[in-house]
Amino acid sequence: MCYADTDTHADGTATAFCYCGWSGDYATPTAADTAATNHERDTEEIDAAIVADAIAANG
Ligand SMILES: [Zn+2]
Q1: For residue 37, what pLDDT is reported?
Q2: Which residue did the predictor score with more confidence, 39 or 49?
Q3: What pLDDT, on the 0 to 100 scale, is given for residue 19?
Q4: How far apart are the CA of 11 and the centre of ligand 1, in A?
Q5: 3-state DSSP call for residue 46?
Q6: Helix, strand, or coil here: 11?
Q7: How far is residue 6 CA from its own chain's centroid?
């Protein structure tokens, strides 16, 4: 599971980033925060899919 964070810049833009290596630049801190939240949710779904596949493979 990912934990994304954001960094607001002096020019008003913001970067969202995560320890997994994902990052993105956004026009506003709000957009970056939304992207960070979406990233955490998306990676949770991926983790759940991997677990479901493993359960299916192992019977
Ligand atoms: Zn991540």
Answers
A1: 96
A2: 39
A3: 93
A4: 25
A5: helix
A6: coil
A7: 11
